[in-house]
Each structure stands twice: as C-alpha cells, then as structure tokens.
Amino acid sequence: MDLPSQYRHLVSQDEELHVLRGVPAHAQQHQPESVACQGVEQRPHHDHPACPTQTPSGRQTRRSPPKSGFWSPTPFHVVAWATAAVDAVRRKTVNALRGEGDTVAARDLKSTRWALLKNPENQTGDQRTTVAAIAKTNKPLYRAYLLKEQLRAVFAVGGDKGRKLLAGWLAWAKRSRIPEFAALAATVEK
After folding, report:
1. Is residue 37 within 8 Å of 50, Cβ to Cβ?
2. Domain carrying residue 55
3. Of 75, 105, 141, 190, which is least packed with CB atoms within 10 Å of its CB?
4. What is the pLDDT of residue 68?
5. pTM score, two decimals?
6. How far apart are CA 131 and CA 109, in angstroms?
7. Are residues 92 and 152 both part of a single domain?
8. Which pairs with CB-CB distance under 8 Å and at least 24 residues apart come from 179-183?
9. Bridge partner residues of 60 (DSSP)
C-alpha cells in the first residue's frame, strides 16, 4: 500500500535543507530550490523550516532545520493509514460488485463509508446498524473495520502492554488476507 505523499515527507540536512518525497535523506541528491519551499499541497508553506523567511532588514534566512533526517509516525497517523485502508477495501468491494453486475448491493455498500470510518463512540444508531449488517453480509470488509478499531485500541493502551498488543495486531493484519492491511503492517513494522 502506497502511503499518501503528505505522510512520506523526509527532511534532510546537507549543505542546504531540502524537502524530499518518499526517499531516505541520504538516497537523494539536492532538489531544486522550487521544491525545497513547497508544502504538502504543492503550494508555498511558509511555516516549514525549509522555506526562506525575511528578517526585518529584508535579508532572506532559513530557520534552523530539524535535528533528525527521518520522520516517525505518530499513533494518529498510523490510525489514519488504517482508516484509509478500510476505505480502500470498501471501494474495492464496491467496484467488484459493480463488475459482477450487482449494482443494488454496490450502491448500498457505497453509502456505508461514514459508518465504517467513524469511531464507534461517535456513530449514530443507523450507522451502528449498518456496521452490524456489514458484519453479516461482507466478512472481509468487516474484518478490515475490526482491524482498524483494534489498532485504535492498541494505541489507547500504550506502554509494554501496548507493544505486546501491537505485535499481536501486526500478526493478525499480516494473515488477514487483506492486502491493504498486510501492507500497513509491513509499514508499521519498519
């Protein structure tokens, strides 16, 4: 599973600071200045350390760069990746149903997006009913939903117990036969 570009930013410090996309800092040569000052959405992002700033005297300077060459994902980001994986499984299932000619089931499953992506404590009664119906009718999609929710629970625990739970989650994700979660597990292990 390819991660969205906004999660793959790596910052390197050589002679100048450069923002690199998706490659380790030591594996890429210098990028042109136009790339060095672009944020996630490909527009100037002046709060980024790589962007030049002007002093009151009008001189351009750079803020001090981060100490590390690699970005470490937070639990928020990992759960966001899991949420994206659930949505990818849902879309793949909808497209497979359309390909089989079952447009009614595809339309019904397409409307389940928010029920699957919301945290259970924030779901409405109808959304809980929708998830319960998915549990009966679409096992792989429900398994993806459970993997996402279990990962949230793992990060809520934290500490040594959380590490043990994460090891169990990684094993479950790898053997789930859901390619999006197997790829996520491989990414989290790195």
Report:
1. yes
2. 5-62
3. 190
4. 56
5. 0.62
6. 10
7. yes
8. 179/1, 180/1, 180/85, 180/88, 180/89, 180/144, 181/82, 181/85, 181/144, 181/147, 183/1, 183/85
9. 54
Inside any domain, residue 174: yes
Over the stretch 59-81, which tens digit does the pLDDT of each residue have? 665 555 555 566 678 888 999 99
Same domain? 82 vs 141: yes
Residue 123 included in any domain: yes
Q: How far is residue 129's CA from residue 93's CA, in Å, rounded to a whole number? A: 19
Determine contact, residues 19/85, Cβ cutoff 8 Å: no
114 shares its domain with 34: no
Token reading at 70 = 């690699």
111 Cβ contact list (under 8 Å, min separation 6): none
Separation CA 171–CA 31 (nearest Å): 38
Which residue in this structure is represented by tokens 């690699």?
Answer: 70
Task: Tell whether 120 and 46 lie within a shared domain.
Answer: no
